[in-house]
């Protein structure tokens, strides 16, 4: 089976000539189904650029990105948009919910953009909210939800449908530790269900939820490691879980 | 975690090489559009305060257009007052004592059935040169509906009864139930009636005749003429007219819309220009909205919206704004129209049905009301959708497009516009329209480069001016659109003002000199009212007295007529005689004509025709028209038909530069040869000095009491008003646009303002910032607008630039520097308030 995400020699340079800034240099990364990868590095190291390129929001200067085995370079803008709609879910630090749409409408938007009828999409959205314990807030607008609730809604939107690649940029950055843990638990749960996740973070504790940690510095992937069993393993009934078990 | 996607290809089932997305799948279709529109609507509701001005502006334009269209449509004369519901109206002249009428009416009825026949007879009105028409008309006829309405009492039923219009009742000091003596006949007034399609129609209504008397008698006495209303084919009517049924001459008139369609089209065209202007303002507003929503658009991009779906967000905004504003405008227009309609009736001189509206035109107007803001949203929507998602997520606006392309496109359009106008010679409508559209579009395209140029030139300006100009450049999309709107708002009135100045008469031109007056029998028309000898003598005496009072002389003017041409109805409802004119054929069944006077001894003396008559004794037409000796002139309006080469000999005579004085004369020899007769048509009065307002008023009184009309030198006060009002209206419009634009710009720059305040900027700095923004936009708009206006006019008048030598100085000064100064002053006065707290930001 093909990997949900594969980056081969991806480089990104902003600007030209003396003002050129190299954000990413020859990055190689493969994320398999069910795997959760944390990307760490100092500010300006290229973490977010890696995420936006992986998610087809930006084009690499060189190299190739494969989503489910399909090269992005061969796709038009609209095809890339459809790809995001069906296969990639984003979660941002500041939630990025659409103001003016209720929680359930935010979740159903990708489905409706893809032509799913409103009623059918709403059923799917409500089911997602039910799983997240937010069924009673389905018709609340984003500014009526707490930070944790908003991020859970964003997560539901990122995973609705059959998406198998979740890209998260500091997903718990704006949350308290309790809410943050809840969100991480949900991401972990999605990975158990077969989704692949890439998580950009500064927080080592957060990274410990991942199966693998990738370190980026000056645009280059300098190290890849499998962390020790993370907090989730401590919370599980069977004691600390090995990386293999987690996968 | 969620329901599976119905169209996605499960990863487990996919084989390498099989496309991830089925081709053509995932366009979203209706559900996607509905979802995007729903979000757009919600955003619109959240931002309703920001949208109030724009919505109000569109609603105002649509409302004014709806009410204006309804009023203009209703104001134009309705054909129902003359034709009823018929397509043709024939006037059958009964000759002396109406002897030929019974046979003629019988034949008409037989050949044109179904037809409604109305018999007419004129009776004198004591103390007036005008007579009163007694008509026998069937109020329940097939075609007469719309010509008669019972106000009170009942319709007359017998030969001894009449119903009167209120004005006729007032003339004879009578009322319903009383008797009235009409032409020596005592009749009982049974009620009050009116012609709802022609309220000025003063008449007495008699019961329609029965049997053989139908259509040929009025109140038991023979009728003089009859009107026939019919829907018979034109060919049948023409055949009947040629055969002169019963020996009576017949004049045919086809139903006409009296320019109603043209006036409706004019209003819609005017509304289109106004909506174009509003669209430019709206484009600026939508550009601001697009900027505000950039992050949200980025978010939508991350969840997979295509470019088209992203465009739909703002297009939906435009369409929804347009729909809401148009609905409000339609209600506003209707609310204004309903109470206005009855007040318009007396001015329009016909009853107005509030629901008798040009519905297709109204529908077109409403569609335009929605389409214009939608189209205005298109460009900002396109630009917004093309911003890379990552850039949009960081809310960074797109880089302004290079100005070079706009400049080249503008240059091409300006050249094409001027190129179309030069050969148009102001007469080829298509070229004129194409030329104006080209120049207008060219000037609009120059707006964005002009904004960039101002921003680039800001380097050495004082701090506040520099910041203001650079802000304009940063927000080029909206400031460019606003500048385009101001350019149009100024350009159109400047062009009108210059044209009005060009049209103004010089002292030795115009219709008449300030010492001359034309006094005409009846109105200025080719049908001269037939008056009794006593009435003529009374008119002559009145004119002589007035001429003496202004120290001048009255030269009698006569025209010729063919006795074989039947009488018809002159303006004012009197029986009249069509007179001959002279002219040339200018096309298939198209003739250009001017009045033809008779070279009476008085006229020969007054207009110095003697030498020409002596030099060319065989001359039949003496004319001061250019080229009248080279190109043949014909005598029009007679039954005589000359063969080829039989055109009367025309001789050119020196004439006056004034247009209303006689310019063509038929010699008395020609009158005799062609068997014509002459009729007094008026007087040219030349006073000893310039006529004063009192002299004019006295002449008008004299004319009104004697059934005459007067014409004096047109002072063209209207043109002066046009010049000033057009520029003032354009200035008001431009200032309104400026207020909206500057308000939006400064609101978007609120953060900068807070920073400025935090770093110690005073209220004077803030005022200067707003004043510089407003003044710079106004200055650029005024310059571009005036340049555009002059480019159009110079191109159109390239064959003769002399009319443009009359420069409308005051209106131009009002435009420049008046508008920029006023804009800057208004900006200065309205700004200065300290912005809200530094920590407070605009909510997303």
From TrEMBL, chain A:
SMART domains hit by this protein: AAA
CDD domains documented for this protein: ABC_MJ0796_LolCDE_FtsE
This protein's GO CC annotations: membrane protein complex; plasma membrane
Protein name per the record: ABC transport system ATP-binding protein
Region (Disordered) residue spans: 227-247
Coiled-coil ranges from the UniProt annotation: none
Recorded superkingdom: Bacteria
InterPro entries assigned to the protein according to its UniProt record, in alphabetical order: AAA+_ATPase, ABC_transporter-like_ATP-bd, ABC_transporter-like_CS, ABC_transpr_LolD-like, MacB-like_ATP-bd, P-loop_NTPase
A GO MF label: ATP hydrolysis activity
Native source organism of the sequence: Actinacidiphila bryophytorum
Keyword list, A-Z: ATP-binding, Nucleotide-binding, Transport
Keyword field contains ATP-binding: yes
Sequence ranges assigned to domain ABC transporter in this UniProt record: 5-243
Automatic annotation (TrEMBL), chain B:
InterPro entries attached to this UniProt entry: ABC3_permease_C, Membrane_comp_ABC_pdt
Region spans: Disordered: 1-27
Ribonucleoprotein recorded as keyword: no
Keywords: Cell membrane, Membrane, Transmembrane, Transmembrane helix
The keyword ATP-binding appears for this protein: no
Subcellular localization: Cell membrane
ABC3 transporter permease C-terminal domain: residues covered: 269-388, 728-831
A Pfam cross-reference name: FtsX
Membrane topology: Multi-pass membrane protein
Transmembrane segments: 52-76, 266-291, 312-338, 358-381, 406-424, 430-451, 480-502, 724-747, 768-797, 809-831
Domain of life: Bacteria
GO CC terms in record: plasma membrane
PANTHER family tied to this protein: BLL1001 PROTEIN (PTHR30287:SF2), MEMBRANE COMPONENT OF PREDICTED ABC SUPERFAMILY METABOLITE UPTAKE TRANSPORTER (PTHR30287)
Protein name in the entry: ABC transport system permease protein
Organism: Actinacidiphila bryophytorum
